[in-house]
Specification:
Elements: H1 23-39, E1 48-50, H2 53-61, E2 65-70, E3 75-80, H3 85-89, H4 93-96, E4 101-105, H5 109-121, E5 127-129, H6 136-161, E6 181-183, H7 200-214, H8 216-220, E7 229-233, H9 240-250, E8 255-259, H10 270-285, E9 288-293, H11 313-325, E10 334-340, H12 348-351, E11 358-361, H13 367-377, H14 389-394, H15 401-417, H16 425-437, H17 448-467, E12 474-478, E13 488-491, H18 501-511, H19 513-521, H20 530-545, H21 572-599, H22 601-614, E14 616-618, H23 619-626, H24 632-679
Parallel strand pairs: 1-4, 2-5, 7-10, 7-11, 8-9, 9-10
Antiparallel strand pairs: 2-3, 3-4, 6-8, 12-13, 12-14
Helix pairs in contact: 7-9, 10-11, 13-15, 15-16, 17-18, 17-19, 17-22, 18-20, 18-21, 19-21, 20-21
């Protein structure tokens, strides 16, 4: 049977193996051309020319020569006077040069000397000398030096334009080539799905994409089509790029990786050329995966940038990307993965079905997911028995996977700084405090009046947060300066999916507790509440303008997603109403905070004094003064419900996995039986 070399499209491969183009050949060709132009011109066009001895004698008799050099090999160099250059060379002295000379061969140095002495007696005095040897090499070097400098500068600038890497992959002629890194099966990336903790739903969808490429027939037999693209969307540090690395580690297909900024270049048309080259390489390697990190660098909505015209290079690149993803050409077997944390600025044409068929949301981890993430990052760290992963997960609400990795690394550094052999629970707590509040500044000098003012302020926060139902539970309070703050309070916020107006008002009241305590018990206010006032002001305007939680402007949202819009989506009269409502909400909660502190001033006073004495107090100290929080049981009940729900979900997932394994075993057995029947 005749064997034919077929490509992925079952077509004969008629390509001829041509030698690869090397930019060094181009350098050599241009250099030879310059040398030929330099030396291959008219022989009379240089600064010298060869003449006969009789012509030389005639020039001396006519007074054209000012200096003569005679060499041992009977070579004579006669330097022409500047005013006589045109008579000898037929050109002006500017084009020929200042040191024009003619060369000839004399019968001997004695006859040359006799001739010059004879002409000297006739009044044609010429200076002459007899050096040991002709300095031809230095003349050639002097004439070639400009050419050498030009060639060297040209090569230097070409290498700089190509990225400084020489003629390997970069050159100015390869500027339109894709810069994607290719990772084959079993390559340098060792990250797998086992290294991705939490993100169960996102990981499931990404695993499905890998399965599409491993077993496409499983899905296409039912009439389905493999999705063309998936967009990973989520806040920074949540693991989008890590998921892509896991795909590269797990996939049995080639994996192209590049960033959105790799398409952008100073040359016009380079971005579109790189997109074409990327998809050309991907089609040759199909089936494969292409990962574009930070795609918002090239995928921003078109026509929104007022500073650029219709010939925007980024828009041209985006147009080419849209065409390659879903144009007339076929991209079968090429799946595009992309990641961004700015999905709101992406072009709508990029997000439609047929290009990015699905959006995979990678959100901040919840309590149980944070436990899993801590489990991954604690593997290489030597910890002792005091470390409580559940406590660490509870004390890091809102932390991303990158933040948790930073906590573990910071705890190890703190333990090493104190000469410990194992990382303890306190090291992790100090690491959390360090990341949230900054480094402690125990050497900062504060007066007694300042310490009392800070203690009153922080005790005001602690008192109101303890007594209000929806305020975040307190963990600890300190008056030790940390970072830019003179004091700080740590809370354990409840993780909610939605937040009510009453919950937001309680949080606002607790935030204003510090300023209210200063006003109520000191009789004056200070600059220490700036951060609190900034927080409640933004919260109040958000409640009114975005969430519709206002009495005068109910059920209205003025949120505008237009990035380049410079107009307010409401009138000036409405802006005045928003200002009045924000002032009213903040003033109401401020008066409410003062009232609560007035009712519990003895407990606040005791808490303030305890804070001055100990500098750091915990929830147990506040509980001893004010008693147990009446709403603590409800929070614990909600937490228990969440943990039970997570356990049930994990149990269901394990059961589904077992069922899938059993089904796959049954299918394998049936396939073997069918194969045996065919063989028989």
């Amino acid at each position: 049977m005749e064997n034919k070399n077929l490509n992925s499209n079952n077509k004969p491969n008629n390509k001829v193996n041509m030698p690869k183009f090397n930019l060094n050949w181009m350098y050599l060709i241009i250099t030879l051309m310059l040398i030929a132009l330099w030396w291959g011109g008219d022989s009379k066009s240089g600064t010298s020319k060869s003449v006969s001895y009789s012509e030389f004698q005639e020039y001396v008799r006519k007074g054209y020569v000012q200096k003569v050099l005679g060499y041992e090999d009977k070579t004579v160099e006669a330097y022409i006077k500047p005013e006589s250059v045109s008579s000898v060379f037929g050109k002006d002295s500017v084009r020929v040069g200042k040191s024009a000379f003619v060369t000839c061969n004399s019968p001997s140095n004695d006859s040359l000397n006799s001739f010059l002495e004879e002409e000297k007696g006739k009044g044609n005095a010429v200076s002459y000398d007899y050096p040991q040897s002709s300095n031809i090499f230095s003349i050639i070097l002097l004439n070639s030096l400009p050419l050498i400098i030009i060639v060297a500068l040209w090569i230097f600038f070409m290498r700089r334009m190509s990225g400084g890497a020489g003629a390997g992959g970069g050159g100015v002629f390869n500027v339109g080539k894709s810069r994607a890194q290719l990772f084959e099966k079993g390559g340098a990336i060792k990250v797998t799905f086992k290294d991705v903790a939490g993100l169960a739903e996102a990981k499931q969808e990404v695993e499905e994409i890998v399965e599409f490429l491993k077993e496409p027939q499983k899905y296409t037999d039912l009439g389905g089509k493999i999705p063309k693209g998936a967009l990973l969307v989520g806040p920074p540090g949540t693991g989008k790029t890590l998921l892509a690395k896991a795909v590269a580690g797990e996939a049995n297909v080639p994996f192209f990786s590049l960033a959105g900024s790799d398409f952008v270049e100073m040359f016009v048309g380079v971005g579109a050329s790189r997109v074409r080259d990327l998809f050309k390489q991907a089609k040759e390697k199909a089936p494969c995966i292409v990962f574009i990190d930070e795609i918002d660098a090239v995928g921003r909505a078109r026509g929104k940038n007022p500073a650029m015209g219709g010939n925007d290079e980024r828009e041209n690149t985006l147009n080419q990307l849209l065409t390659e993803m879903d144009g007339f050409g076929s991209n079968s077997g090429v799946i595009i993965l992309a990641a961004t944390n700015r999905v709101d600025v992406l072009d709508k044409a990029l997000l439609r079905a047929g290009r990015f068929d699905r959006q995979i949301h990678v959100d901040l981890p919840d309590l149980n997911e944070r436990k899993e993430v801590f489990g991954v990052h604690l593997r290489p760290i030597k910890i002792d028995s005091s470390v409580d992963v559940d406590l660490l997960a509870r004390q890091t609400p809102g932390f991303s996977g990158a933040d948790i990795a930073n906590v573990c690394n910071e705890a190890a550094l703190i333990a090493a700084r104190h000469g410990k052999k194992f990382v303890s629970k306190q090291d992790f707590l100090d690491a959390v405090d360090r990341i949230i509040g900054g480094l402690e500044k125990k050497t900062k000098i504060t007066t007694e009046a300042e310490r009392r003012s800070i203690a009153l302020h922080e005790a005001g926060h602690a008192t109101i947060s303890w007594l209000l139902e929806y305020a975040n539970p307190l963990i600890k309070v300190t008056i030790v300066p940390r970072g830019r703050a003179l004091g700080a309070a740590w809370y354990l916020p409840e993780e909610r999916q939605i937040t009510t107006k009453e919950q937001m008002l309680d949080e606002m009241c607790a935030t204003l507790g510090g300023r209210a305590a200063e006003d109520l018990f000191l009789g004056h206010i200070s600059t220490g509440a700036m951060n609190d006032l900034e927080k409640v002001t933004k919260q109040a305007y958000g409640m009114i303008a975005y969430l519709g939680m206002s009495e005068k402007l109910p059920n209205l949202c003025y949120y505008n997603n237009d990035e380049y819009s410079f107009n307010k989506p409401y009138s000036e009269k409405t802006a005045e109403l928003i200002d009045e409502e924000a002032k009213q909400i903040i003033n109401e909660q401020y008066e409410r905070a003062k009232q609560i502190l007035s009712e519990h001033k003895e407990g606040h006073k005791e808490l303030t004094q305890l804070l001055i004495d100990k500098e750091v107090i915990f929830a147990e100290d506040v509980e001893r003064i004010f008693g147990k929080r009446p709403w603590a049981s409800r929070s614990e009940e909600i937490m228990a419900i969440k943990e039970n729900k997570a356990a049930e979900n994990a149990k269901e997932a394990n059961e589904e996995k077992k069922e899938d394994d059993n089904e796959s075993k049954i299918q394998d057995e049936s396939k073997k039986e069918n194969q045996n029947e065919v063989d028989n």
